[in-house]
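Objective 1b. Sequence-to-structure analysis of And other transporter-domain-containing protein.
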Amino acid sequence: MSKPIDPAIAREKEKARLAKPNKGTVAHDEMAHNKLDLRSDNVNARLENPLAGISLERLQEMGRAFALEKGLEEHAEEFAKGAMVAQDPLAYESLPMLNDEDRRVLGREVTHKWDHPKALYFLVVMCSISAAVQGMDESVTNGANLFWAPQFGLDTDPATAGAAASNNQWLLGLTAGAPYLCCAVLGCWLTAPLNNWFGRRGAIFITATLSALTCIWGACTNSWQHLFVSRLVLGLGIGPKSATVPVYGAETAPPLIRGALVMQWQVWTAFGIMLGTVSSLAFYKVPDPTNAAITGLNWRLMLGSAAFPAFFVMAQVYFCPESPRWLIGKGRYGKAYESLCRLRHTKLQAARDLFMINALLEEEASISTGRSAIVEMFAVARNRRAALASGIVMFMQQFCGINVIAYYSSTIFRQAGFGEIEALGATLGFGALNWIAAAPALYTIDTFGRRALLLTTFPIMSLALLIVALSFLIEAQTARTAMTATFVYVHCIAYSPGEGPVPFTYSAEAFPLYIRDVGMSYATALTWLFNFILALTFPRLLDAFTPSGAFGWYAAWNMIGWTLVLFFVPETKSLTLEELDQVFSVPTKSHAAYQARQVPYFIGKYIMRKDMGSPEQLYHWENPSIERVQSIPHFTGVRGDMQA
């Protein structure tokens, strides 16, 4: 962390704060009644714009002083201008020192939000390809299960295995879910030390290497126990990588398109699922060589093929710039400025962002009480609310039912009446739709917001799974297979722009920097834990509940997820990572009560088409640029996108 700003600046900031003591972050009757003063009584509640109220002359002095202090003397004038722009990014037209080119660049940043250097897109897309390793593992396991389980004596069919089928079903689930057990118990918790020692890029390189090697190892095993161990170690690669890549993207992306860029993790997970199914089909009929002591060459090639995306990531990750926020945390301001210059079009934009990041992080540092990051995550109210919201979306990513389809769709489709090849073909359709249907979320996640996508897609997923459950009761095989496949696909299409990209995006941006690595470790450990539980239990669930009962079970969970999101998950779109402290300042009880009051408003306005008047607002933003361009539509609590 950098040094605190000088006492004179601190006095100016405090004077500006005290000049408007009655303006809080919560603007509804309950909070007005309680007169909650977030500045004095709840220091953990939020960070307001630390530059608010400071004169332009003083901001110029602060910018130059910052450049001198951090060894960036030759860029002092850029930082003087950047400090002024950082206070209110939309006031560039009236700021002194800016020339016409500066104003053109800053204006275009708002009117053309997708116009950024290629280095930014290269960083996010290329590093997110590492997610394809995870996606491929899920789907190649789907095909490989058809072969390695019988070869290693795990017959799961009660008609042929008898009483042993139940035990074999548990062992099949245990082996399939082994990487995610390791992710939850150990892998994800290595995120913080790996990132601390090696940086974001180093952590990604190390975990991609481990993932590649363990995929090859799993292809060389000769017993289910040996395969279980290799897949367990695979979790050491998947866990830290799944926590690091979204954070890396979140820390480098501009706020207006952060969600779309961070969700590349899910896009490429979906691509990996599709690619793994292609691999399963490509190697399905590969025979064992007659002149070598190799059995099961087809499933070995399936498992080993998941290493190729990891090798690709290893080859390119060091061509990407390191996270500026990570570099600031290490006190390497010169490198952070170089990184931002690669990620932004001009040095002015880089200076503005570096100055603002540092100012916000200084404020953020005041939240910490000096306790361990894990204690801070639950002891500090702001962090605890982020952990609750992240935990809900991560939990529901598993219990919405998508991954049981990814792992066992070939089994599901066979029970619906498909043959083995047809089942894998239907699984390929599932993987392709999962990837293609994620494309709209590139735009909707930063336009409609995270909450709106979840609240819209959960009911669709629930209905689709309910119809799948009922389809298994149809006696006519043609109708049963058609209905099952159709609504598995409908569920997938609804998942891809909602619970697919939102959880990792949300978790990567919800936690403050000083506990972000541990917070993301917690969130990803949670999702991998429930991923393991699903992989472990679904073979037995399918047998004990029957397919109808199993899919009905997950249909019900989707409606539970909708309720949890409505009451406990606030919106995070289009805010800087540090400004999210203002969102998570609102007490959980107050947020839930507000959302409950919006249900009748939403029904009256949008269903009954009544004039319901102006909506109640939950937040008031002290940053004038946010106040001018953001709004909070009713019911969902989603803030509108920034417009020109």
